[in-house]
TrEMBL record:
<dbReference type="InterPro" id="IPR003593">
    <property type="entry name" value="AAA+_ATPase"/>
</dbReference>
<feature type="region of interest" description="Disordered">
    <location>
        <begin position="1"/>
        <end position="20"/>
    </location>
</feature>
<feature type="domain" description="AAA+ ATPase">
    <location>
        <begin position="171"/>
        <end position="358"/>
    </location>
</feature>
<protein>
    <submittedName>
        <fullName>AAA family ATPase</fullName>
    </submittedName>
</protein>
<dbReference type="InterPro" id="IPR027417">
    <property type="entry name" value="P-loop_NTPase"/>
</dbReference>
Length: 448
């Protein structure tokens, strides 16, 4: 552990903060139009011809009873055909019966795909989404010093940050992390959610004002439920399969951020409507890294967040021109190498609840980090090499940035391997690593 705390950091498995969404047993419980389900079922049969009832039930994630009713309705409309298995048998034997689209059903599928290419579990209603997100508000589950100490156990110099970050996390307000490049701002921000020992439910998709918006993203959402809880045949022992039990989401974006990423949009290759970043990050953290490097002016980006930060809701424009309101219940963290006064006016800075400055490491933490990383790379650190390192820092006026040990040890390992030398970082090896890492004045490459 990087800090000197002797606190017992044993952690129990994540527990859901909110009650599990109940399994809908009737169409009224779904609170979405039946035509949405029919179109989704038609698209599934177009993508996966001759599927059986179990396959369709798993794909659309509602009860098999409702899927059977939908299939019967589609058969009466001559959109779906039934195919008997090789063994014959009763029509109701779902493992033996396959379903496929008729010619008119295939035409309906083309129309449905042209409007919306989403394939997956049935969406949840916007009202249900809003209700669950509010129940999972981070402010309803206050963290303690032990929680934050656990979250930052890999952070050297964490003792100074813990007393500030703890109250900041509990406030639910936006954070501004600023300081020189390489001081660990983004590294710390990505570990903030480790202080919360609760899991949250994320929907696969949300239905809002005539549109299906895909929310669940494997890139940003990490499931914690293996699915074993869903094996029971009793609905009371299950939860709604249209939701996924996940760790709290952590969404990070940097210089590539554009305003379109903050609105509902579709991919270039199909018409699947994707939730904006802040919707994916609800009940978690959204990190805007490298603030000031985005293509749009900083003022434009910051102004986008004034209403959400102040009132904890966000207005989104939909593809059909309508607007919806969603909760904005997340930790918004801005990370920048610039001085706060250069990126925002005083009025906006006041809206940022916590402004946390990051500094280079203290000597003891810096040396401990060097020794740890060298050992991880199976290298020993010659003590005379560390004295050489300190001299280079003084000579070039470079701070003890946490990014340097990992980068310089990596280059040193490359040099040792190439020279077929002993696995030791010597003064000579270290000087070579420093020279190729930094620019000619010794100040350019290492700070990021």
């Amino acid at each position: 552990m990087s800090s000197n705390s002797q606190v017992n950091l044993h952690r129990s498995p994540l527990k859901p903060q909110a009650a599990a969404p109940k399994v809908p047993t009737a169409f009224e419980d779904l609170k979405i139009p039946r035509t949405v389900l029919e179109n989704l079922l038609i698209k599934l049969l177009s993508a996966y011809p001759k599927s059986n009832l179990l396959q369709l039930t798993n794909a659309i994630s509602i009860s098999s009873h409702m899927v059977e009713i939908l299939l019967e309705d589609l058969r009466r409309k001559s959109l779906v055909e039934v195919f008997q298995g090789e063994l014959g048998g009763n029509y109701k034997e779902s493992g033996n019966v396959r379903y496929g689209l008729s010619e008119s059903g295939s035409q309906e599928a083309d129309v449905a795909f042209a409007k919306d290419a989403y394939l997956g579990p049935a969406p949840v209603s916007l009202d249900e989404y809003n209700r669950i997100v509010r129940q999972q508000d981070v402010r309803a589950h206050q963290v303690t010093r032990i929680d934050v100490t656990h979250a930052l156990q890999e952070v050297y110099g964490a003792d100074r940050l813990i007393p500030v970050l703890g109250p900041a996390i509990n406030s639910g307000r936006a954070l501004l992390l600023y300081g020189d490049a390489g001081t660990g701002k983004t590294f710390v921000a990505t570990r903030v959610l480790n202080s919360l020992n609760t899991s949250v439910y994320i929907p696969y998709a949300v239905y809002a004002a005539g549109n299906i918006i895909k929310v669940f993203s494997p890139q940003h959402h990490k499931p914690v439920d293996s699915g074993e809880s869903q094996q029971s045949f009793s609905f009371k022992d299950q939860y709604d399969k249209r939701w996924v039990l996940c760790e709290r989401p952590s969404v990070q974006v940097g210089g590539e951020l554009t305003m379109s990423m903050l609105e509902v949009n579709h991919t270039e290759h199909n018409r699947v409507w994707i939730a904006p970043l802040q919707m994916m990050a609800n009940n978690g953290i959204l990190i805007i890294d490298d603030l000031g490097r985005q293509t749009m002016p900083v003022a434009t980006l910051l102004n986008r967040w004034i209403i959400p930060m102040e009132y904890f809701f966000d207005n989104l424009s939909l593809p059909n021109g309508q607007q919806i309101t969603i909760p904005f219940i997340l930790t918004l963290a801005f990370s920048t190498n610039l001085s706060p006064e250069l990126i925002a006016d005083p009025a906006f800075l006041r809206r940022l609840g916590y402004k946390i400055q990051f500094h280079p490491l203290a000597h003891a933490d810096y040396q401990a980090l060097w020794e740890k990383i060298a050992a991880q790379r199976s290298l020993s650190l010659d003590m005379s090499a560390f004295e050489t390192l300190l001299r280079l820092h003084r000579q070039h006026k470079v701070g003890f940035y946490p990014c340097l040990p990992k980068d310089l040890v990596g280059i040193s390992r490359d040099i040792v391997a190439f020279e077929e030398a002993e696995p030791v970082i010597t003064p000579a090896v270290l000087e070579r690593a420093w020279e190729v890492y930094f620019t000619s004045d010794g100040n350019g490459g290492g700070k990021r």
